[in-house]
Amino acid sequence: MEIKELRCFLRVAETLNFNRAAEMLNMSQPVVTKTVAQLEHRLGVKLFERTTRRVALTAAGVVLRREADGLLAHLDQVQRSVRHAIAEESGRFAIGVTPLAMQTVFPAVMRGFRARHPEIDLQIHEMPSDAQVRQLLAAEIDAAFLLLPAADPALEVQEIHTEQMRLAVPKSHPHLKTLGNAPLPLSAFAGETFIIPPRAQNPGVHDEIIRACSVAGFRPKVKDCTEGRSCLCLVEAGMGVSFVTNRIDCAASDDMRIVDLEDPAPSLCVALAWRKDDPSALLQVIRDLALEEAVI
Hints:
This protein is α/β, with parallel strands linked by helices. The chain has helices spanning 3-15, 18-25, 29-43, 59-90, 99-103, 106-116, 129-137, 174-179, 203-215, 228-236, 281-292, and strands spanning 48-50, 55-57, 92-97, 121-126, 143-147, 155-170, 193-196, 221-224, 242-245, 256-259, 267-275.
């Protein structure tokens, strides 16, 4: 058996949904299905009962899930111990960070850290929050500045910054003419197309936008867009509206306006996450500095 096959199997066993498992693994659904089929062929048993309506573990699948959980947990612990020892010896400290954290609390935390430990080789990796969680659990990074939610029993998570979102809209939008510069209710844009990141790329942002629209009383029409500047170009082209944060590097243009929203407006929460079993003194310095910069 291969580790990749076991990880795919466990995600499907946890969710009983191949599409959801693929999202969590950041893989395509056909690849997950093929990988599980390869594991079934290798073992010579059927691990799942599949119908058009449901997925269920077979008796063999129940046994494998029980055994694989412990096996992979032990393997992950071995990997973390080895990587931690290497990092301590080399003076390396690896940090994951999202773009919003990079634009808000992260620079001040790094300035404080560099002042205290200029000898440490800081390795900064910008990546989505779900990728940070995976790398943190595998000890490929030592701390993560990510967007909530980020729940895992092996992690500690501390909220450090909340950023309210605004809305980029075409300058020709009729509400701008009738309401002027006053904050607008999100429900005023219920008929618009919302240009947002795909859930597979950034589930925290995607889910918060869908949740906020639901609270405002509507389900948004969605157009996926993977890059922030491209999303704004689509707004300028009149193809929809897009959420932005206060720190985004953009301003009103000839074809676009940035408007405030009435409460409750959607917001994003930046948090610091680390492994519960990590005793690193450097991590404690990062935690203390992050709490000093916290704006909730």
